Amino acid sequence: MNKIFLGLSVAALLVTTAVFAEEHHGSAATHEVHWNYEDHGPANWGEFGETCQLGKAQSPINILTKQTSTIEKSSVIALNESVKSSASVIDNGHAIQVNVENGGMITVDGVDYKLAQFHFHGKSEEQIDGKQYDLVAHMVHKSAFGNLLVVAVLFEEGKTANKMVQTVLDSVGKSTQMNPADLLPKNSNSYFHFMGSLTTPPCSENVKWYVMKEIQSASKEQIVALRKFYDHNYRPVQPLNGRIVESK
Fold first, then answer.
1. Tens digits of per-residue pLDDT, 108-121?
2. By the number of CB atoms within 10 A of the CB, which of 50, 123, 151, 246 ranks highest?
């Protein structure tokens, strides 16, 4: 009887171990090296997407304000982000990200781009005249055809807390209600525009970028709190390679 019980116990242990290994570690065939900002950081991202290394229209960039041109009419955006949206705030492994439902949209040249999510980088990826800001939020929009448009909102340290940043910090791992327009500066009609790429692998290009000129403010405590999750999740600036940066 003891031998039978022992045999059943061993079998149960083996099954439990196999399930644990599948759920928590994956098989050897699927457990692949993943990109990050450290040992598999930006200098090595060509291993995870060749466009990261070979692309000629990569983001982020250093915007030189004296070398910009007046924006073309076809590049002007119409923002319609002010809606009450359900949102889930997650740690996606690289940034704190807010996934929104019915989060508003932006229209440019007759095409609508719906807000899908926004996320934060511990310092700004974009630079303006060589200045890197204390924080940036990237608002990622997608058209019905799958094309992407990203709005970058830059932050610097201030004395008062930012309402939207605090909502995000208070909701990590939870669902909440928010208005995405609260992330935007009061003057959202002034911005830089250029064509670029995703700033993470696979670094796909043909992404419309808009960088808001008015800098938002967040408190030191809020910036520190966000950086406790990720403090150096930003890609270095990339060569402009002759691209035109428009200004409005």
1. 999 999 999 999 99
2. 151
